[in-house]
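Quick question, first post here. What does this chain look like in 3D?
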Amino acid sequence: MSTRSSGVGPEDVDVVELHDCFTANELLTYEALGLAESGGAERFIWDGDNTYGGKVVTNPSGGLLSKGHPLGATGLAQCAELVWQLRGDAQDRQVEGARTALQHNLGLGGACVVSLYRPA
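> Answer (accepted):
Ran it through. Tokens below.
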């Protein structure tokens, strides 16, 4: 992830909703977003850096597969989760002190969207 456009780097992100349609995609995306160093996604997971108490909480909603990967509704579900996180309304999934959230979503045909959220 580049800080050129947003002024936000991977180290600033508290919570991520990541398009985890396949396990391999999740691993690749950790590295592509700069959340893990190149070749370091496996270690990132083994060290617990992708969950509560780690560097960044990933998919507190349970991710796509926990919802049945609903095509079309995936992005909206991710958005809702991140807004709840930033408002402090995520109940038992709440990431304590979440101030910056990242949404990563893929679409048919290779479309990819990465959005950052911060409260006003």
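The chain has four helices and four strands.
The chain has a mean pLDDT of 92.
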